[in-house]
Amino acid sequence: MSVAEQTQESTLPSLTIVKDAACTFCGCVCDDMELTVENNRITKAKNACVLGKAWFLNHHIDDRPDATIKGQPVSYEEAIEYAADILLNARNPVTYGLSDTTCEAQRVAVAITDWVGGTVDTTTSVCHGPSGMAFQGVGEVTATLGEIKNRADCVIYWGGNPAESHPRHFTRYSLTPKGQFLPNGRKDRYAVLIDVRKTKSAKAMDEFIQIKPRCDFELIWAMRALAKGVEVGPEIEQKTGVPLAQLQALVDRMKTAKFGVILFGMGLTMTRGKHMNTEAVLSLARDLNKFTRWTAKPMRGHGNVTGADNVVSWSTGYPFGVNLSRGYPRFNPGEYTTSDLLLRGEADAAMIIASDPMSNFCQQARDHFVRIPTIVLDPKLSESAKVATVAFTTATYGINVAGTAYRMDDVPIYLRPAFQSKYRSDYEILKAIETRIRERQLAAS
Amino acid sequence: MSLLQIQGGTVYDPTNGIDGVVQDIWIQDGKVIAPSLDLKADRVIDARGYVVMPGGVDMHCHIAGPKVNVARKMRPEEKRTSPMIRRTALTRSGTTGSVPSTFATGYLYAGLGYTTAFDAAVPPLTARHTHEELEDTPIIDKGFYVMMGNNHYIMKQLRDGEPERLKAYVGWLLNATKGYATKLVNPGGVEAWKSGDWNANQLDDSVNSFGVTPRQIINSVAQAVDELGIPHSVHVHCNNLGMPGNWSTTLETMASLEGHRGHLTHIQFHSYGGNPNDQSTIRSEVPKLADYVNSHKNLTVDVGQVMFNSTTSMTGDGPLGYYLHKVTGRKWFSGDTEMEAGCGIVPIVYKNKSMVHTLQWAIGLEWYLLINDPWRIAMSTDHPNGGSFMAYPEIIALLMDRSRREAILDQAPAGVRERCVLGDITREYTLNEIAIITRAAPARLLGLKQKGHLGPGADGDVTIYSINDDKQRMFELPRWVIHRGEIVVDGGEVRSNKAGTLLHVAPDFDDAVVPDIQSWFEDHYSIQFRNYPVDENYLHLHEVVPTRI
Q1: Inter-chain CB proximity B92 and A114 less than 8 Å
Q2: Residues of chain B neighbouring A295 (CB-CB closer than 8 A)
Q3: Average pLDDT over residues B320-345
Q4: Which of A444, B220, B368, B538 is the most buried (most CB within 10 A)?
């Protein structure tokens, strides 16, 4: 007996409807897409937000070589052999990216790095890495997005602009939907945005608190004090830009909510204080459980960055920035994180999966990247793919490749592809590289 | 065709009534076969002078899935000071500490002579994650239990008086998750915690939003499990874990299972007398509870032994996590899963200088020693809650040697001896009884007919030990470990990176209920109904263990 419904896909000669597909553009991983596919193009993406529509409707499969070595088209097999050479000959290779591919591919990427004794790192190291470090320090009181939808009557967004970065977060999970214990939806919630600038998200709030830049830690610490009944002086306004009375009123409201959540973005993690800010916000949410139920959650960006954290953690014990060169995992952000390894000139080879360090790393890191042998897996001719020693053209996860992605709340979602790509998936290419590396290692031993 | 002969070992196979008999074991294509003079083995292990047992079976541990992975992420500090698992030509690297990485977990279990282990607490919404981790947990066979004790659909059916629908849902959910058994964690109490009512401390407390009681949840799920013919009974983590005076809750839970099979897990944590508001009043109430279990054949237990060590408490019991955070003041993870479950994780140190901790240690041992029938008790530390599974050899030594227990009791803080009966118990376990509580009994309690024994048709899972008067050393380092006929450990070295097999159930259920489940699901969950069930392509090597009907 099947527990799932029978397939809902209906297929006409050139038209396919794919229901319950997932959008992997952002960390929301909304899995209620209804995609209309005509002649290998997605012509409608029902339920998608503005970002999702762009993701699906602009998706086309480039006409590029399957793979190139030093810019010259080659077969997959030649490129796989060459990639295996690079990794086997390197003394300190780094594997990086991984947040825009399936967990299945991530697992193989970690395996390859383990077999060759390299460093495995993900884009977490340049976004919510500080949140991961704060997590190690204080833990986290959190809940799935459905729990927030069903219960959270007080929602605080901090250092983020979900209206533009996670457009459906408001309507699907945290602000407007009717929930099990919030029958009136938006009316049953009190929403606050705390940020350095008044973004589009502010309009959707009950209260906007504009904080002076680089003062998040001080504001959170004052809130922790107020929650505990410790006196805070009026000079907090001069420091943070927030009047004490407004802060006191907010804390009082938080203590009397039934279930609260703080959803924080990179405005908190990548400003002065970094992981200290996140530790403070996680501590604030934790402290409030003395009075009522409070939770906190980072607003993760990439579609499967949460999966990357999980895969690297279960394989090695650490979430990102893991060095395997001694034959066992070691963790040290700043030492084993990719931008640092590159800018110090320590990595002697790099394998990049679904990420583009050449378009967003600092100049010294990019300079080093073009000096060393590199392998790049990307559906597009990214800046990194352009300079790669070996470049693979890949199928796009979620749209052309099935697999698993973890939503920002660690809920694993199955990805239903809309149509097939003529290119291979990250998983297939990485598996072939792993197989080749293992054959050669076992033959040598 | 591969044929392995284990020659001349002293065999302990309690299921087949073999108690220290010298005989050969033959394994063909992964299965034990009857000895035959006509066959010629491809490989012979000379086991003369060695002890031969079926591979160990751990029926309650936490080794895969979201809470385990959160604990890995949360505890970097213990990994640097714990033994590393180095990559070899054949095997992957890993980290240890109280929560080993997945590859490390598989190798460590195999190295200990355990060939099967079950994760005891998985929220259905994250079953897919658990399957992914189990695939990356090499060598051992494995599965998991699905948390249902705070599930909204179950509570709704209880409120609405729909036992048939409840039963069908239990069957549907086991199919949807590809789980092995049903688990109740602090039934009703976790939902109370999630909704801000903190906990359900009495079996007849009403869970506010539903108006149902823990007693109703326990009784109805136990009934559904029996009627569906699930191989393992309902697996119960009682309310009030760790609280002085909780033994009466445990006794009531046992009574509420009357007429059904029921397994009470980490029973050590649920056997305390005293005043809940004053930890210093804690005492053992094992004799009364063990008497009840001894006289009620429908009940079985595993222990959840506490050892003196630094470890991580991880539980589906959200309010317990908060309690431990308040007691220890240490970092704390809490994770609420919509419609289903909770989670609490806190680092914890059990010290032999603490009266309470030493008493917990003694209470665990009392359970092993006061249950008359070893077939109804399984060894566990509730890994990593009471300690690591790596502590099993030490527990074996404590059970087999009274003087080892006495040596610890002699050093125990004041008051421990007076608060328990351990000092008066002279019983010492035999090797045969050890073989029962570490493999034969847990396999039987799980309804695994091919595990825990060495009769023809059994899976070829065998552990071969060097005989040693120091039983801890003997069980710490098996000479050979064989999994489904393949030698996976030889002389302390792991020689395999094989995948192992996932064990799950697929009970028949009345599928007329599915539209009702779907309608409820679509009202409350944040993912699509069709994306909820775990598809077969998530399973690696797997076997469906048949239901009893």
Answers
A1: yes
A2: 334, 336
A3: 97
A4: B368
User: Which parts of B80-121 fold into alpha helices (H)?
Assistant: 102-111
pLDDT of residue A3: 41
CB contact under 8 A, A135 and B73: yes
Q: Are both A289 and A396 inside the same structural domain?
A: no
Tell whether A141 and A94 lie within a shared domain: no
Rounded to an integer, what distance in angstroms lies between the CA atom of residue B183 and that of residue B472?
A: 32
A345 and A398 together in one domain: yes
The answer on A320 and A377 residing in a single domain is yes
CA distance A264 to chain B (A): 17
ipTM of this complex prediction, to 2 decimal places:
0.97
| A23 in a structural domain | yes
Residue A252 structural domain: 131-298
Shortest distance, CA B484 to any CA of chain A (angstroms): 24
Hey, what long-range contacts does B404-407 have (CB within 8 A, 24 or more apart)?
A: B405/B365
Report the DSSP beta bridge partners of residue B530.
Answer: none
**Residue A293 and residue A144 share a domain:** yes
Suggest the residue from B531, B535, B540 to mutate for an interface test with chain A (most A CBs closer than 10 A): B531
Q: Tell me which residue of B182, B152, B115, B97 sits closest to B498, measured CA to CA.
A: B115
Alpha carbon separation from A410 to A29, A50, A121, A310 (Å, rounded): 11, 24, 19, 8
pLDDT at B1: 56
Domain B53-502: give its CATH architecture: Alpha-Beta Barrel (3.20)
pTM equals 0.97
CB contact under 8 A, B93 and A114: yes
Q: How many domains does chain A have?
A: 3
Which residues in chain B are contacts of A319 at CB distance < 8 A? 73
